Backbone:
């Protein structure tokens, strides 16, 4: 289980949430990446989601700095590390876990403000995608104004890689066979 | 209610009609001032003599004092490595209001420490001071808005001195606005006491050999113009307590705008003013004008610094070069990046004021202390513009 926090929850609804993180943490999330949000301290209940959008907002100072020639490294770092211009990660919920059981339905309640978001480990991704018959992909179909094809492709690529490593190369064909 | 647009429209048209004549008069005055600047540029002893006579007759005289450089001298951008450390501080405050349920004040100082050229993220420093109860009514006098502002200025310098103490190597320390204190509150004894602390903080920066300066953006001062005006007064007029202002309306920036090329600074001047006595010896205030725009049309700032910087050519060049480096980081609107960041760090928002007020009230309730109520006047003002609607 990965314990590197990516960011904290800004706002949420029953179907998804938006998480804020510092720009310096950008190397952790990736489009289509699977993430988890523990609902309790013991992490016995977790919400699973997929990153479907990453926003980097500007502000007056950033707009001014881009007009300068050769912005020094310390100024770039200042804006990425110190300034309150968060990177916003949009997450669609695709399931949840209660104890050892994994569900591909929406969580009973959304996570709360400032709950922490973590990337899922390859093992978590493998377990989640192997449970059931990829039914969780239906949650992605609700998304609007999102490059859905890219998102599904990115997720399937990541999931297939961990399944292959675990000796399950035909994982993707499971829903067709069953 | 909105302003009376009908009334204002008529007034705007009147002002518009007056504008060409005003501009012509101002242009003539600028031209005259430029001629005097050139003609008097090297007659420094004579100027100083006139200034001394005028000052004796009028102790409230406020103008520039020429030093050794010609009045119209210019100095190019020094190409120096950046200072090891750049510090900048700015402050903001919450003024106590009797209309609040519990009057309180906050002085917030934000500072930033940059290690230029090191590719390290700068450090932000915030120091907040809460003032309530007896602190709002010091025995030396009431805590007026003027005094809170003075204490904010004092805290800015104290923070810079404290930060500079921990540094080694060359340090440049910037604050926004002039170093000179213009406030003249009625609470003289409290003002004098705080002024003493202010001087002590500046003195600490002297001892640490820090290039400390106040940066004045878009300056409207006319210190050099007032000096030039003295040459237009007949001898006996110099001895009058209220001297005429033949170049009124002309500001120094008009004099130097066409003279300072990109990155150039003017000569250094000292300041003659009633408050100058507050800053003796190495603390005596000096300034130069600086064209901070390295591309395009000139944009001048006034930079104020104490005598120890003025008398040290290395520190003066370091200050000059550092300010240009800082300004060019802000692209087509040059302003020192570090000062802007210090301002961002220091700023106290209305929401924060409200939150702090709630925190205080909650804590007092917890302690069993009765908290007052917001004044009716304030409640009505807060309601202005807030409309509610009937919703099914």
Residues:
């Amino acid at each position: 289980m990965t314990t590197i926090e990516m960011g904290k929850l800004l706002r949420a609804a029953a179907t998804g949430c938006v998480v804020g993180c510092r720009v310096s943490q950008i190397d952790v999330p990736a489009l289509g990446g699977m993430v988890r949000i523990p609902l309790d301290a013991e992490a016995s209940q977790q919400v699973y989601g997929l990153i479907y959008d990453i926003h980097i907002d500007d502000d007056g100072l950033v707009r001014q700095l881009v007009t300068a020639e050769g912005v020094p490294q310390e100024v770039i770092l200042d804006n990425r590390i110190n300034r309150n211009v968060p990177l916003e990660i949009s997450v669609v919920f695709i399931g949840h876990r209660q104890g050892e059981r994994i569900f591909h339905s929406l969580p009973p309640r959304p996570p709360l403000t400032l709950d922490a978001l973590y990337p899922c480990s390859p093992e978590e991704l493998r377990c989640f995608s192997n449970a059931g018959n990829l039914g969780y992909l239906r949650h992605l179909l609700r998304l609007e104004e999102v490059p859905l094809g890219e998102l599904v492709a990115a997720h399937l690529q990541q999931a297939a890689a961990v399944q292959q490593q675990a000796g399950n190369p035909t994982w993707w064909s499971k829903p067709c066979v069953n | 209610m909105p302003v009376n647009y009908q009334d204002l429209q008529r007034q705007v048209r009147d002002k518009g009609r007056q504008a060409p004549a005003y501009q012509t008069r101002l242009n003539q005055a600028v031209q005259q001032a430029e001629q005097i600047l050139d003609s008097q540029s090297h007659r420094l002893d004579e100027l100083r003599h006139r200034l001394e006579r005028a000052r004796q007759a009028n102790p409230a005289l406020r103008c520039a004092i020429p030093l050794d450089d010609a009045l119209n001298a210019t100095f190019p951008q020094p190409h120096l490595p950046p200072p090891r450390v750049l510090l900048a501080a700015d402050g903001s405050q919450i003024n106590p209001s009797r209309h609040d349920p519990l009057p309180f004040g906050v002085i917030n100082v934000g500072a930033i420490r940059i290690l230029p050229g090191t590719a390290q993220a700068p450090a932000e420093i915030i120091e907040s001071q809460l003032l309530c109860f007896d602190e709002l009514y010091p025995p030396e006098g009431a805590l007026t808005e003027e005094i809170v502002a003075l204490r904010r200025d004092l805290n800015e310098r104290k923070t810079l001195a404290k930060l500079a103490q921990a540094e080694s190597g060359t340090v440049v320390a910037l604050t926004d606005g002039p170093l000179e204190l213009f406030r003249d509150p009625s609470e003289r004894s409290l003002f004098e006491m705080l002024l003493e602390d202010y001087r002590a903080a500046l003195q600490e920066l002297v001892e640490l050999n820090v290039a400390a300066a106040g940066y004045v953006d878009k300056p409207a001062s006319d210190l050099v113009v007032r000096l030039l005006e003295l040459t237009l007064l007949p001898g006996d007029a110099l001895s009058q307590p209220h001297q005429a202002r033949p170049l009124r309306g002309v500001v120094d920036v008009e004099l130097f705008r066409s003279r300072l090329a990109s990155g150039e600074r003017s000569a250094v001047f000292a300041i003659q003013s009633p408050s100058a006595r507050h800053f003796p010896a190495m603390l005596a205030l000096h300034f130069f004008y600086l064209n901070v725009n390295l591309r395009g049309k000139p944009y001048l700032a006034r930079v104020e610094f104490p005598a120890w910087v003025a008398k040290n050519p290395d520190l003066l060049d370091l200050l000059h070069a550092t300010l240009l480096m800082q300004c060019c980081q802000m692209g087509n609107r040059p302003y020192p990046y570090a000062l802007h960041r210090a301002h961002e760090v220091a700023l106290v928002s209305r929401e924060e004021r409200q939150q702090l007020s709630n925190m205080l009230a909650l804590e007092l309730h917890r302690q069993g202390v009765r908290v007052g109520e917001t004044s009716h006047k304030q409640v009505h003002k807060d309601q202005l513009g807030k409309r509610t609607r009937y919703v099914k």
